[in-house]
Amino acid sequence: MLQAPQRTALSGPALIRLLARLADIDVSESRQSLSDRLSQWLGWTDAIALSSALNGAPPAVAAGARVFGSAEEDECMRVRRSLTDAVVGDSVLGAARRRGRAPAQRVSMDAAVAPDYAVFRQRYLAIQQSMETGVANLRGRLRGMLATRTPAMARLALLDAVMERALGERERTLLAAVPGLLAGHFERLREAAQQALAAGTDATCGQAVAVTPDGWLEVFRQDMQSVLLAELEVRFQPVEGLLAALRVR
């Protein structure tokens, strides 16, 4: 008996592994080094700015900025918790749980019809915007504190600013493609539910069968939540890096 080839396990962020599974695509590990990939992503003006940040004289240490302490740690935790709660408690993604799961009932093929995917796309984009704004504000605030520490820390703050400016547009473009990948997952789940329901109807000579009408939709909601939470992890990586630098005494 022939066996389907197994996909190579990815070692990247959870977001990439989730999207590869949900989009049903085989993603191989890149053989390019980080420097090679950066050379393709950065324009010449970005490359000059990056070189200046790395090789130029250390920036002068800024004065007057607020000293890093527990209040800033708490604020970062608050923003992250708020964004997480926005995903977990979202009315669109949690609609089925708030209504309570309906018991199995006799339904027709219309039970496999769901709200238009545009509703989910708009919600995903709105949450993405909240993430981008919240993380950008934190990142700028932490950079300002880092710039008051030492010349080496001030250089790191400058480097982070250059990287955010250089890669921000590419990041937005790549993350904006995620709802499109989820659209395919949405349609595949709906089609599978319709086919299963049709098969059940045929098997009983036209009689409707007992099913959970929105079971596939609940699966999609949970998958979309998982992707959003994984995206939040990716977006917070620069913040975690700046926090780690600020914790150094």
Automatic annotation (TrEMBL):
Pfam families assigned: DUF3348 (PF11828)
InterPro entries tied to this protein: DUF3348
Domain of life: Bacteria
Protein name: DUF3348 domain-containing protein
Organism from which the protein derives: Paraburkholderia ribeironis
